[in-house]
Design goal:
The chain starts with 16 loop residues before the first helix and ends with a helix. Strand 3, helix 4 (110-117) and strand 4 form a beta-alpha-beta unit. It has helices spanning 17-32, 54-65, 87-95, 110-117, 133-147, 165-174, 193-202, 235-241, 283-301, and strands at 43-48, 69-73, 100-105, 122-127, 154-158, 180-184, 206-209, 221-224, 260-262. It has 305 residues and is of the alpha/beta class. The chain has a five-stranded parallel beta sheet, covered by helices on one side. Strands 2-1-3-4 form a four-stranded parallel beta sheet, sandwiched between helices. It folds into two domains: 2-131 and 290-301, Rossmann fold (3-Layer(aba) Sandwich), CATH 3.40.50.1370; 134-287, Aspartate/ornithine carbamoyltransferase (Rossmann fold). The structure holds phosphoric acid mono(formamide)ester.
């Protein structure tokens, strides 16, 4: 097993299956005992060039629970980026001020670039439509916790499969666990071919659908996603697809008793609020699991666990 110490987490493929499982075990430890002062004397920088609620605040909550300190920004308009400072210079400077950088940026590849110029490890908190690996680890934690296993599950991915970075990272990770995938999206937001080619190369089963109302009974996990207005260059394309899927409580009648609904959140209207009281609605607990999982990621990368 490779050590995660001092390694950046840019893509979910940077870590092995064994390393994912180790993170999930550690996250379980933090769920049982969140307040462990392992990060005393450490500084973590959270650099968010794009809006966030869960990712930034759960990373910051994780650092606080571990006794570390935070620097950073939630809006680059208040930094020297607005004066024209490059990402290269920003990262070089901030990496001298901290022990670990957590960065969200709208450009695909920006996190890999930052990891190459930074003097400290970088965690990709989302780079455009590309990857969101810490989200995937909390998704894996949520799947394992609710299903009791990660192997041989049937996962439905619904909504924006073209630009959805959480979907892209989750497919790569779950492909290590003999998953059967069902991709449900409008024509304009279909899963990119590169992911299908990858699954073909592994001999994994996947199916594409334009609706899932009549086939939900086979699902172990239904992973809903938002159609992301900010990724569309053409507003008409967004208007055409924004209400493609709305999950409602009455659609759950035929689903398996242990089926669980995940969503990286934020939702707009793709999960009706009448689903929220269902025991199958797991998305709020999923977001809570982000704190434990991020405690596990941070302490692993800093070599504290
Ligand atoms: N799931 C997620 O990335 O949420 P935020 O955009 O609020 O961080």
């Amino acid at each position: 097993m490779h050590s995660m110490k001092n390694k950046s987490l840019v893509s979910i493929t940077d870590f092995s299956k064994e390393e994912y499982l180790r993170i999930l075990d550690l996250a379980g430890e933090f769920e049982r005992k969140p307040g462990q002062p392992l990060l005393q004397g450490y500084i973590v920088a959270t650099l968010f060039f794009e809006p966030s609620t869960r990712t930034r605040l759960s990373f910051e909550s994780a650092v606080n629970r571990l006794g570390g300190k935070i620097i950073g920004f939630s809006d680059s308009a208040n930094t020297s980026v607005s004066k024209g400072e490059t990402l290269n210079d920003t990262i070089k400077i901030v990496s001298n001020y901290c022990d670990l950088i957590v960065m969200r940026h709208p450009l695909e590849g920006s996190a890999r670039y930052a990891s190459e110029v930074s003097g400290v490890p970088v965690i990709n908190a989302g780079d455009g439509a590309n990857q969101h690996p810490s989200q995937t680890l909390l998704d894996l934690y949520s799947i394992k916790k609710t299903q009791g296993r990660l192997d041989n599950l049937c996962i439905y991915l619904v909504g924006d499969l073209k630009y959805g970075r959480t979907v892209h990272s989750l497919i790569m990770a779950m492909s290590k666990f003999n998953t059967t995938f069902h991709f449900i999206s409008p024509e304009e937001l279909k899963i990119p071919n590169e992911y299908k080619i990858y699954l073909d190369s592994l001999g994994l089963k996947y199916f594409e659908h334009s609706d899932f109302t009549d086939i939900i009974d086979e699902a172990d996990i239904v992973y809903m996603t938002r159609v992301q207005k900010e990724r569309f260059s053409d507003p008409i394309e967004y208007e055409k697809t924004k209400n493609a899927y709305v999950l409602r409580a009455d659609m759950l009648k035929k689903s398996k008793p242990n089926m669980r609904i995940l969503h990286p959140l934020p939702r707009v209207n793709e999960i009706h609020t009448d689903v929220d009281p269902s025991e199958k609605a797991y998305y709020f607990t999923q977001a809570l699991n982000g704190v434990y999982t991020r405690q596990a990621i941070i302490t692993s990368i800093l070599g504290l666990k």
